[in-house]
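STRUCTURE:
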């Protein structure tokens, strides 16, 4: 007898896999720049809400390309270095600090500024120089307003009867 081939019914193969394997869809999503909250402007004093620095008051410097906020304490006043923060984790206050004049001679991108080599234990010298220059400029701007240094150095706290949704920051 002659061998017969397996017949294909209605164009369907005789073997069908047990699990349906879906093809991944091509997605053409274009990620948009994160919009800055209307209450946040350069020089604005913000309160950090999360992390080991929560409750600290910081000065907003600018929004980075990634959408994060660049903030600084300054370090000499309340111990907060230049740091990236998501705007969901801050409260904007009504207090403003005069933003210091910028030195644009050595502008760096976000990746270059925050790049840390894991093998090294010391911070790069230019990072420390930038932080000290920023600290000095912010410290001078804060010193112009009376009691602002004391305000920046105190932690934000809530007591049991406080209602944050009714507070004016």
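SEQUENCE:
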């Amino acid at each position: 007898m002659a061998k017969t081939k397996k017949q294909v019914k209605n164009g369907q193969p005789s073997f069908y896999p047990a699990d349906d394997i879906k093809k991944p869809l091509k997605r053409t999503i274009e990620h948009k720049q994160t919009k800055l909250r209307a209450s946040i402007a350069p020089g604005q004093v913000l309160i950090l809400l999360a992390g080991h620095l929560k409750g600290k008051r910081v000065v907003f410097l600018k929004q980075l390309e990634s959408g994060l906020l660049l903030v600084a304490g300054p370090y000499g006043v309340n111990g907060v270095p230049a740091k990236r923060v998501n705007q969901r984790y801050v409260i904007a206050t009504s207090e403003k600090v005069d933003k210091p004049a910028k030195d644009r001679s050595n502008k760096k991108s976000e990746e270059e500024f925050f790049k840390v080599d894991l093998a090294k234990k010391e911070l790069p010298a230019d990072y420390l120089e930038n932080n000290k220059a920023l600290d000095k400029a912010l410290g001078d701007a804060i010193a112009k307003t009376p009691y602002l240094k004391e305000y920046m150095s105190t932690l934000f706290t809530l007591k049991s009867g406080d209602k944050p949704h009714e507070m004016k920051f």
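REMARK: The two ends are 93 Å apart (CA to CA).
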